[in-house]
Amino acid sequence: MGEKLFQGEYVSSNRLLYTASEFAKNNLIYLQEIGSLKAQKKHISKRQNLSSFLFFYVKEGSGYLDYEGKLYEIEAGDCVFINCQKPYSHRTSNNLWRLEWIHFNGDNVLPIYMKYADRGGQPVFRPEDLGVPEGIWKEINDVSHSSDYIRDIRINEYLSSLMTFLMSFSWNPEAKKSDPNTKSLYDVKEYIDTHYAEKISLDMLSDLFLKNKYSLSRSFKEQFGTSIINYLLVVRITHAKQLLRFTDMTVEEVGAACGITPLYYFSRIFKQIEGVSPLEFKAGWK
């Protein structure tokens, strides 16, 4: 880890470049960088293909975020949460901003981000006040500068609190559904959610929604972070678990009710996803 103080023509910044342990990288949500800056002049920062997620909030001033083809105006009090694999840029306005940021990552962050986006969470949102994220930022900043021997565990705890904070602003379903570029994908997802027990194939969905199947498959994975076929299987297995736990249906009846037949195939897929057979799962909840 290394600390960097920078006083330049465009920004005055104080940042910590943090090197997490291999244990943290393999098992935790881990910190990559934390810092604050005050713009000295108008400037723009552009990034893409970074294995990182970025959260920042604006303490003073205002600026702009360009992300996924849309330009967002950002003012003091606003928060930003984005996936840095995607191209993005941000810049201050004439009202030079001051902000504090966190770059972080972890194997489970992408699924959380996809759930955030799936529920309609926006790249820019505005809490009632910045007290919670400011408190989390301070906790992470303090512990990352410390010599605490369980520092990475504490950082994981605080970043988990940050994810909880972010998810509390995720429920905004109409925002995504109103976007003409993604509405049809939500229609596909909703169709799967309600017709999972029926025979569903990529070709059938392509015909039903009048979209090229390769384009549909690629767009669905980009939007929801998983393939159409895998999403269908997860929906079916989720319903199967409910039936196994809360009904007296046989395993074969459950598989048929969830659209997975014959019995041997249902048992194989269930164990592949859950790690136990349907019978073992059912017995475990008696």
Describe the structure.
It is a single chain. With 286 residues, the protein is an alpha+beta fold. The protein is 45% helix and 23% strand. It has helices spanning 22-27, 109-118, 131-144, 151-167, 173-177, 183-195, 202-209, 213-224, 228-246, 251-257, 263-274, 278-284, and strands at 2-7, 11-17, 30-39, 44-47, 53-60, 62-67, 70-75, 79-83, 88-92, 98-105, 124-125. Strands 1-2-3-10-5-8-11 form a 7-stranded antiparallel sheet. α3 runs antiparallel to α4. The protein is globular and about 70 Å long.
Tell me the layout of helices and strands.
Elements lengths: L1 E6 L3 E7 L4 H6 L2 E10 L4 E4 L5 E8 L1 E6 L2 E6 L3 E5 L4 E5 L5 E8 L3 H10 L5 E2 L5 H14 L6 H17 L5 H5 L5 H13 L6 H8 L3 H12 L3 H19 L4 H7 L5 H12 L3 H7 L2
Can you tag this structure with a few keywords?
single chain; 286 residues; seven-stranded antiparallel sheet; 12 helices; 23% strand; globular
Ends: how far apart? Answer: 50 Å
Low-confidence stretches: none
Structural class: alpha+beta
Strand content: 15-25%
Binned, the helix content reads 40-55%
Q: What gyration radius follows from the Cα positions, in whole Å? A: 23 Å
What is the H/E string? EEHEEEEEEEEHEHHHHHHHHHH
Largest beta sheet: strand ordering: 1-2-3-10-5-8-11
Q: Biggest β-sheet, characterized?
A: 7 strands, antiparallel
Instruction: Identify the overall geometry.
Output: globular
Number of helices: 12
